[in-house]
Amino acid sequence: MTDRYDEGMRIRRTVLGDAHVDRAEAGRTALDTPFQTLITESAWGTVWASDAITLRERSMLTLAILAATGNFEEIPMHIRATMRTGASQRDVMEAFQHVAVYAGVPKANHAIKLAKATFAEMEAADNA
């Protein structure tokens, strides 16, 4: 593997947590290995690894972009990541307010619904 892959895996584990990455890696097959390598090197090893902005800011941007483009499936994963990136619940709501104004209220509304449910799950797990 490349240095960019190794750095991407380090950042991916920092942001998403070892348990999440271990589950994803366990499900890797020969069919999706090229794709997994691509996202590990590009998304995690290049974009997320850059020190130009903080992980908190990247977390907020990622959530806003996912909501604005209607890619809702990954929002819960990135909401869970906020506990490691430092993005607060208020930060997330601010990002989704931008989505409402610039990309549409229905998209922001759905993202907020997902965020509320995920934050509630996280709180329940912390109190268990």
TrEMBL record:
> Which one Pfam family would you cite for this protein?
CMD
InterPro entries tied to this protein? 4CMD/NDH-1_regulator, AhpD-like, CMD-like, Decarb_PcaC
Please state what the protein is called: 4-carboxymuconolactone decarboxylase
User: Which Gene3D superfamilies does this UniProt record tie to the protein?
Assistant: AhpD-like
Domain Carboxymuconolactone decarboxylase-like residue range list: 35-117
Q: Select a single GO molecular function from the record's annotations and give it.
A: peroxiredoxin activity
